[in-house]
Structures are given as structure tokens and as C-alpha cells.
């Protein structure tokens, strides 16, 4: 009998170690920056104004704008407007969705009108908003709220329609009042759909924000883009584009985190 230690045969067909998703995402971003840099380098001549669109100029301008705080001030103004628009959309959309989901006849009556309004671009209401509310924050917040209310309302209505009927029957069998049914069964059951609607609303809000802030105001990321264009400061314009993308991504991460936290608790 041999005293040698037994050799462990390698596993046949062992899978290679998976690359973390975050690393893949970082590699994807680096690839996009490389393509962006190469495209500008090939399409433009050296020492021209168009070279300000290249990543080195954009990132250098972004660092300068962050140091002096000007871009941060514009971003805070835009985030405040987005927050107000989303809050108004929640105040209108959640009760509206609860009513539409709970009252089929009301839903049948209003759904064609609501779908028609939903299909109208929020930016189409710009002239009406300016005439009714004037130039400034109120018209911008109105446009943002109008854009965000539909995903919130529709998601809430769908959440009510998908509630487990056994829970509702149990509540009725225990003689629960309407307020108890709403607070203990309906609202907890529609939180996940509402959070999904909020995430969709944030995406729409962030798209509508920039053109809405070109509506005669003197602050906000949309105004910053318009101002840099007029000043031919294209490196700062690209820095603003990067900031808009990064902030939008961060808001989406927050919405996804809230949804994951709630579903994990449930």
C-alpha cells in the first residue's frame, strides 16, 4: 500500500469564476468613453472648437464646475423642482389610482379620457402653462407633475386590481371598516406597484426636466445647458450632460433600492 497522499482529480467541466456585475458595468462605461473619445478625435481637427466635446475637456470642465459650486447650485434647483413635481404626482396619482382600481364603472368612464391625456406630450402644454401660471417655477413644476402623474396612477390602479381577493374576503368576514380595509390591506398591497410607478415617473421627469427648464428661468440644469450653448462653452455643456446622466442614474438607483427594501421586508 503506497504512503503517497491521494491526488485530487480536477473537476471536469468546472465553470470559470463569474465576473461581478458591477465590474462589467464599469467596463461598459469605460468602453463608451473610449468610443466617445475616438469618435471626437476622428471626426474633428486639432485645436478646433469641436474638440471641446472630447472627454478630457468635458471631465476637466466638470471638475472646475464642481469646485466653484455653480453646477451644484443648478443641480439642487432641478432636484427641488423634480421633488415637487413627484410629490404632486403622488398626491394626485395614488388616490386616483385607488379609485380607478376599486370602482370598475368609474374606471370604464374615465379611462378613455385619461389615456388620451396620457398620450399628449407634457411639453405640448408649455404655452398653456406659461399663460396660466407665468414664467418660472410654477409652470415647470406643473409640466413635471403632469408628466409623472400617469405612471403613478396607472401603477396604483393595476396594483389594486391585482390584490389577492382572499385578503379582501378575510377583511370583510372580520367586519373590517372601509378605513381598516384601506389601511391594513389595500395600501400595503399596492406599495410595490406604486414604487414601480415612481421609478417610471422619475425616468419621465428627468427627460422632461431639461426642455422645461429652458422656459425663461435663470437656474437649473436645463438653463445651464442652454446658457453654455449660447456662450459656445461646449466643454461645460458636455459636463452638464454628464451631470444630468449621473444624477438621473442616482435617482433611479434610489427608486430601485426603495423597491428592493420593501419587497425584501414583505
UniProtKB/TrEMBL annotation:
GO BP, one annotated term: transmembrane transport
High-level lineage: Bacteria, Pseudomonadati, Pseudomonadota, Betaproteobacteria, Burkholderiales
Highest rank taxon of the organism: Bacteria
The keyword Transport belongs to this UniProt entry's keyword annotation: yes
Key words of the record: Cell membrane, Membrane, Transmembrane, Transmembrane helix, Transport
Protein name, UniProt field: NitT/TauT family transport system permease protein
Coiled coil: none
InterPro entries hit by this protein: MetI-like, MetI-like_sf
Keyword S-adenosyl-L-methionine attached: no
Residues that span the membrane, as ranges: 21-39, 82-104, 116-135, 141-161, 181-198, 204-226, 238-262
All copies of domain ABC transmembrane type-1, residue ranges: 75-255
A GO cellular component annotation in the UniProt record: plasma membrane
Main location group: membrane
Family membership: Belongs to the binding-protein-dependent transport system permease family.
Record's subcellular location: Cell membrane
Membrane-topology annotation of the record: Multi-pass membrane protein
